[in-house]
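Exam revision sheet. Question 4 asks you to relate a sequence to its structure. Input first:
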Amino acid sequence: MKKLLTYCTIFAALGFTTPTAIAADSCGYFAFAGAYSTFNRADRQASRVGGAAWGLDSSNSPNAGKGLWVVAKGPGSRTQANNWRRQYRNKGVKGAYVAKRCFYGE
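Answer key, C-alpha cells:
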C-alpha cells in the first residue's frame, strides 16, 4: 500500500492522472483490550498496553454504528491473537478477549 501511495504521489507531481487508492480490508483474529467512546481515549490506552485504536463503525462487529473505538492487536491467526490476549492480561487488562473481525478501509 505504501508503494502504491508513493507511486501515486510521483505521478501526481509529474502531472499524470493517478488511479484512486483503495484502502485494504483487515480481516482475521484480533485481541481486544477495551472499547472507548473517543479515539483519544482508545489511543491513550493503546499507548499504555500496545496495539492500535480501531474504529468499530468500519467493521463487521455487532457494535458497529455506535461510534466506539477499540484497542486491538491484529489481524493474525487465532494462535497469535491468543498470545496477544495473554499479553494484555499480563498488563492488567482483565477483560481482554479474542474475536474474528474485519475492519474495512483500515
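Marking note for examiners. Residues 1-22 have pLDDT under 50 and may be disordered.
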